[in-house]
Amino acid sequence: DLKQELITGTNNGLILTFVINKGNKVHINSINFTDNYTIADQKLKKRMKGTKEMTKITLFPQKVESPYGDSSLKTQRFKDYMKEMGYLSPSKTKDVIEPYFRFKLFSNSKFNETKYADDKENIVSYYNSRGYRDAMLVADTQFYDTKGNLNIDIKVNEGRKYYFGDMVWKGNTKYSDSILNVLLGIKKGDIYNLETLNKRLGKQLSAEGGDIGSLYMDDGYLFFRVEPVETAVYNDTIDFEIRMTEGPQAVYGNITVSGNDKTKDYVILRELRTIPGERFSRADIIRTQRELGQLGFINAETINPNVVPNADNGTVDINWQIEEKSADQLELSAGFGGGIGLTGTLGVTFNNFSIKNITKKSSWDPLPTGDGQKLSARIQSNGKAYRSYNFSFTEPWLGGKKRNSFSVNYYNTKYANAYNQLTGQYCKSCGDTSYVKTVGVGISLGKQLKWPDDYFNLIYSLNVQQYKLRNYDRLFANLSDGTSTNISLKLTLLRNSAGPNPIFPTSGSNFLVSGQFTLPYSLLGMTSTTDNQYKLPEFHKWRMNAEWYTPIGKAKGADKNKQFILKAAAKFGFIGRYNSKLGISPFERFQVGDAGLSNTQALLGYDIIAHRGYPVYSNSDPKVNPDGVQPTEYFTIFNKYTVEMRYPFSTGASSTIYGLAFFEAANGWYDFKNYNPFKLRRSAGVGMRFFLPMFGLLGFDYGIGFDRYNQNSGIKGAAKFTFMLGQEPE
Predict the structure, then answer these.
(1) How far apart are CA 167 and CA 172, in angstroms?
(2) Which fold has domain 341-726?
(3) pLDDT by residue (tens digit) across 182-225?
(4) How far, rounded to the nearest angstrom, does the alpha carbon of residue 635 sit from its chain's CA centroid?
(5) What is the Cα–Cα distance from 384 to 575, expressed in whole angstroms?
(6) Mean pLDDT score of the chain, rounded to an integer?
(7) What's the CATH number of domain 28-157, 3.10.20.310, 3.40.30.10, 3.40.309.10, 3.40.50.970?
(8) What's the pTM?
(9) Closest Cα partner for 593 from 610, 606, 571, 607?
């Protein structure tokens, strides 16, 4: 409505008032299709992502008459449903229930004209993908029911179903027709689907590759073009001529980098697989995007290779446009307790450090950065009960010419029994007579391998750890006093192709096999088998980890970065001995259960294997899971299997946030005699992960241990809320 009001005292002045009545929001009661003889209503409704029906519960379904001579109440009689065993088909069962019960918890039933137009195109595209090339929506209408809700009727003309006929290749000189036919994977008689044909030809490029376009572009044919042309349509068959222009093989020309304000050029350039003068390859670009994203201080979501082909001279220039992100982390907390004294934590991690500029005053802005090195330091204290110092440094390119990593770490920790065991009260002097001190130094060298492929790395690690115990029996069984020095060599072979974002991988895999060894001191006569048998612990330890990441469904969102990701993982560990007269070392065993929030315990010589939904357990019986028990002996064997479905809410430079639903099964054993990889504790639940630039990981899970459930305590007794900070345990 429009109102006019003349402004007195002015020339030609007029006030216009627009009166808007928004009316009520319109919800969709029903969607009905007419003349859809081959594809059921329910399947077509699934293609309408933005147009959904409202929730409905009724014993007397309303019959909605369609203006096209059909009804939305398309249900077979219950007698026929049972006779034809329709209960074996979820879609037929849903058709029977639909008029009476429709539950739409997460669907928005409000009508949106723009989304409705898109959904009509989706329906036609779905028909096309099923071979109905001529399908169209000949009419549609909307009308209100007696309650003011909207009914939608759509009249379909399905047309004839078509099939692929002969495929004739033209212009191919590099590869024969037979090779291209195998790679295309479409045979005469297959259901016609133009979208599938274009995808197999590589007209719609994908990161997975495997199409004809990728075959050519990975071999330098940047100027490759392909066009499928219909040459004959007879009855229900369509013949195609695939016209190709291979063009010359291109080589890389000028390669530049932009957007790196802090990071030095050479740090970025050494990660590039696009080397000037070498033959162009699409795989090189994809691999470079992954390598840059793995650095940690480059935003993996915004890496943009600006490709400029030069057809005249057969070269291609690339400007790698990157965006730096803050990857440094700060951990700070403080407190004061009566009797305990000052408690707190101070920790810093710099992921793009420059140690060679540490003496240059001009480089401190506020810290010397840009060389891609990692430096971390952490101090933590809980009065006399606990204190810890940690330091580590990593150079990913030792020498600067090859990807040979170098790492060094040092830690010094003291756990003290600061409470009187009889009274439970804080005791200042107890910590001086009952404690365990741990000092450790580790050095590792890593080398990137070229065979079987350059995703493989071999890492050598030398670790020296000294444990000094004094009247401290809360950590290891049969060991409360004495000094133990653990010297071990660890060899790790890993293959990591997961990426491109290291925080939220969407594809690829990560495999690891490691062996950790000490000298067989007892067999060499270097230690006694009776007196302080753990003075020089001896063992051999084996670990195997495997992880796979698979995208599920189609990517959504404006940037096509919202997609379900399935993670599947399997892990195994075993520690053995050289001398059967000695017990297995109490060090380097496996703690299984809980979420591993107290990850500082790892400094005391065992691996933490988290199991959501369960407390830390010390027995192999899945039905025995007491809360609040701290084991004094840990497992020598473990198995763990995990399946996670992840969904990202944010993958930007400022934060990475994703939700997950998981299923886990794990257990631990003390010897192979009782080992049973199928006797596992099972759990399931949901969780969230928040990766913030300054604080790192913040995560929580709510898990239900199936083997903890009993009728007395119910779900509450079987559920466990777990929290993690800084790093996610295994």
Answers:
(1) 13
(2) Porin (2.40.160)
(3) 999 999 999 999 989 999 998 876 667 789 999 999 999 999 99
(4) 29
(5) 33
(6) 86
(7) 3.10.20.310
(8) 0.81
(9) 610
